[in-house]
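Session log. Operator J.P. requested a structure for one protein chain; no other inputs attached. Running the standard single-chain path with token output.
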Amino acid sequence: MKKKAKGKLDAITFIYGFGAAVVLVGAMFKFLGWSYANEMFVAGLSIEAVVFLISAFERNTEDKDYHWENVFPQLTGGDGNTSSNTGYGDAMTQFAGTLNELTIQLKEMNKSIQQIKIEMQNSANKSIEMHSRIAEFNEQMDTYNNHMRQINHKYNSLLNK
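Structure written below.
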């Protein structure tokens, strides 16, 4: 991998940065209404145009940043004991196995969710049933209380005679 030495100034990068700085200062002049804003815009944008024109013809060698075969040895056949087709096949077999395990786990999770749904529905039904029984019990208690009041009223009327 080819790296640029630190401390060296790249001429194109410097000119590009200089042109951008002139454009930004020209924009500031324009916003503030100061003199020479248009001239600074023309100078900065001209510098930028020249840099873009030069960089259009610049040829760079493509650097290979990553060595994927070091990260995934299956791409080249594993540890060197098998051919590249076998390494790829092994990787695909491993992937298929993982995918199969994931599918089985998802099916089990779906069954569990269905069971939870059924239990929650049963609990909701029992709750509704309990609610109606409590309402019925409250009605019976009201009737009982009314009867007790009537009995107390009759008892008091007998005592007062």
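Operator note: Helices lie at 11-32, 37-57, 68-71, 84-160.
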